């Protein structure tokens, strides 16, 4: 299967080409950075390579991503984590502008050459930093590139930042001139090296100024850079993380640090208890995940068989949970020693499609060792995962379709095997071994709710498809021109002539109503329908009405009736 994002874009292109007026414009530059519309997929050095990354080791993993074919399933990021830097007794050794230097014993050709190599394989390069400014920068009082300021002007030497390597990172006082410019200079360096993904680690709520500064700095480079926050972030600040970054670690590390090597490195990389704790955080953080910002459950420890610390059942369960949660799929294993059983798991496009469908599932049953998770996709299918999280004995997990979101019968497909499981009425059960999961897709046989994305509809010229206000679904939302007559028009199917319920999902961050006419097959069915302020452009609401549909294709258009234009329009749900 081709890279999923490419498939989605191609699909959007076909639908737009088939519709009426139209125009597709690049996302407007504003607060959203437009990155990670779907969760990142690739590999990270921390779990397996740990504290001894070298350019040869990273290149070997990049080679393996390609030779295994994992890249063609969407695994494209090669992320170099911590321990690439050079330390002395005062912490990080810095360059002439106070930024970390790379350990040339580990990376003799430098990071740009490594990124170039990764790019030459059609992959993307990820890199790593932590907040603050190095003590050595302050000791040498290095200049801040492009300014008349120096390290000592911006460092708060009274406190040290969290850092897991050379330590000795002072806080930056962002009220000082030169502070943002220092971070900008670092981000410019990363961009010039070809960084496509930046993890900022050791971040907590005390570092929100750093998180903001790095967000600004990355945007200022003009290079698209996926921005990841780590680790164990506070859920109380989830709206802040979501407004600034593309993913955020919901917990500490998935690694057990129980391996036989130094500092607990080596196999096993993890254990089941480090996976099972993620069920609760994925449930608690579910509401914050969506296109452009995802809950990072940490590395997926699949690729090296049982020695990674999980049984095959547990590995499939880990992949199942991550996919249901819409979590980044960053492999922690040694891809040069890919186990065939695990390779089959990782190249299961049905699982990958669930991860990349743009939705994070909700936990709908949690009863002892059993859990059931569910989400609805745009097609109207539900994806349901049932788990036995226990370590001893089989157990039967059960869910009613009414808990999933529909009634009657559904056509069930097992997503791990691909097998058609026939029609199942009312209730679904699975008897599961300890650590086992069942992942199914259910197509309701009766009325289903289908989501028609606005970015795939016809839109008037002067309108754009934007991604800068989180909470949209699909791959963006429509920002119409601020003019009367601006519209969004969907082609909506119906199996039979009937009255159908239609919900228009929108946001209006202004304080003035943005009324629209709702027209079905050329007839106004709701004139000047109110689409009042929702409080912010990030707060989405639905306006639901019943409309007459004929059998087959119908056009449903919403047209702004005032000079303010339409609200931002995300999608139309037809039930
Ligand atoms: C802001 C907002 C847009 C919105 C526009 C409007 O610019 O960011 O998303 O469409 O206002 O008033 O229509
Ligand atoms: Ca607008």
TrEMBL record:
EC supergroup of this enzyme: hydrolase
Gene3D superfamilies linked: Aldolase class I, Galactose-binding domain-like, Golgi alpha-mannosidase II
Domain CBM6: 450-575
E.C. no: 3.2.1.22
Biological processes, Gene Ontology terms: carbohydrate metabolic process
Entries under CDD domains matching the protein: CBM35_pectate_lyase-like, GH27
Keyword Cell membrane appears in the UniProt entry: no
Catalytic activity of the protein: Hydrolysis of terminal, non-reducing alpha-D-galactose residues in alpha-D-galactosides, including galactose oligosaccharides, galactomannans and galactolipids
PROSITE patterns registered for this protein in UniProt: CBM6
Keyword Disulfide bond belongs to the record: yes
InterPro entries for the chain: Aldolase_TIM, CBM6, Galactose-bd-like_sf, GH, Glyco_hydro_27, Glyco_hydro_b, Melibiase_C
Keywords: Disulfide bond, Glycosidase, Hydrolase, Signal
Gene Ontology molecular-function annotations: alpha-galactosidase activity; carbohydrate binding
Family: Belongs to the glycosyl hydrolase 27 family.
Name recorded for this polypeptide: Alpha-galactosidase
Organism field: Streptomyces sp. R21
